[in-house]
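I am hoping you can look over what I have pasted underneath with an eye to the fold:
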Amino acid sequence: MKYEPLSPELFKLNRQRFARKMTSDSIAIFHSNDLMPRNGDVFYPFRQNSGLFYLSGLDQAETVVVLFPDCIKEGFHELAFIQRTNDYLATWEGHKYTKEEARKASGIEKIYWLDEMDNILHELILLAKRVYINLNENDRFHSEVPSRDMRAAHRLTDQYPGHKYHRAQPILKKLMMIKSPYEVEIIKHAINITGKAFHRVLEFVEPGRMEFEIEAEITYEFIRNRANGHAYHPIIASGKNGCVLHYSQNDQMCKAGDLLLLDFGAEYANYASDMTRTIPVSGQFTPRQREIYDAVLRVMEAARSMLVPGNTLEEYQREVGKTMEKELIKLKLLNKTDIKNQDPTHPAYKKYFMHGTSHHLGLDVHDLSNRYDPILAGMVFTCEPGIYVPEENIGIRLENDILVTDTHPIDLMSQIPVEAEEIEELMNAGVLH
């Protein structure tokens, strides 16, 4: 791994928190992600299953973590299975965990080779009455590709039909929404790397640059600072491309007078950051661009202040919408008649601001969460309003990552330039000197 080793105390704490939520006489089984085929005999780069990593810190394919807090067999309350290495694997794929390295990374004492799992796990399952399985329960995503956890769940229910089965994800969602101080520090580290990349971009961007050249500068800064890479596919959207919410081609030229919308974030130790900035390609906003930019910034500042304990994301989005509505009227993009005649289920402001304002952030850029739970201290959210006016060739989005506390929201990206004047000054620093 490129990143510095994390403390196993984090994963010990996470396992303890999960175990306390388990029903008595239960065993929980977590599988690593698959190596995903790319083409031929080549795989995509491996990314660990977030749930397994959260509970163990083990960042390697072919890994299984088992929790059995009530196990009557001494010493088998938690264990992990890892791939047995050999000279052939070492030659072709490189180093794999030794048992001692896996113990050190996870804090799990009982480490076995994966080829020893069937007999050991069979005995443990028979000692349990219930089995927790870990499936992807994102309510806005359904994959036709069965995960390793899904395939294992089918085998378990076929082999042990008399057991009761429970879902691990509701527990993980409750736990992972609240970040420990140690997790917040990891996210802040990812954010610091993202900030370095943004400063690099401000020095690099000028008319004639290609979007992919800017992507390359960001990637360079990420990797040289030990990030895993990008937390998600970066959006480098110049001109009209800034009005495409999930623009991904990154293959157009940046033209004088246009805006450049940058949505990117470093992933460090599997924890994500998520930032958006919109900058003028020529180093100076036009009056109209600046007018809309400042409106988005005001909405972001107002929204940030609403990320407080007790609020809900639904209530929060309604209030942000009211703030955005006022700004769009000032910009003459909406008028009072538009508001009077709007469909309450699809407010008029959504013509220019069609996405949500915030999502949970953590091991996933769209982190595990229950959107209907109230906001609590320890949660980390993005805050990302935008205004998109295709007819004016203007797409502006601004995004910072916010930590909720019992006293006030903390902007984890407060050190990264966002004010229009500062961005212009930094972009023109080389010209002025």
Notes: The longest helix spans residues 181-204.
